[in-house]
Amino acid sequence: MSYEENDKELERTNNLFRFLQGIMPDGYSVRKRTVPKLSAEQAWTVIWYLQNQYWQPDDAIKRCDICGDLYHSWQEGRCLDYGKAPCFFCDNCINTDVFKKKERSKLNPGRARRLVKIL
Length: 119
Ligand SMILES: [Zn+2]
Prior knowledge:
Elements: H1 3-20, H2 40-54, E1 61-63, E2 70-72, E3 78-80, E4 87-89, H3 97-103, H4 109-118
Antiparallel strand pairs: 1-2, 3-4
The protein binds zinc ion (ZN).
Zinc ion is lined by residues 64, 66-67, 69, 90, 92-93.
């Protein structure tokens, strides 16, 4: 996919993310009593389930574990996949202490290789 298509997919997914939290996209209105009112965590769980069961939205859309923003993982961010569960970081959160601590973890299989290179 092109950067433009990735941006559109990210925008559509952000609209769904906000919709599930009660913020209607432009041009849509629903009866007040039918407006979804999920928390951000619940809304993301719905999107994650749709990605896994129906392949939409594109599962390259990830949610940053630090700031909670959505991002397209083909264009930015990092995933540190070890320990109890994978951790996702958008570009804005890669320089945080949480990322650096997780990257230095003894569980990081890439850590030992990097130390060997340094030696
Ligand atoms: Zn972030």
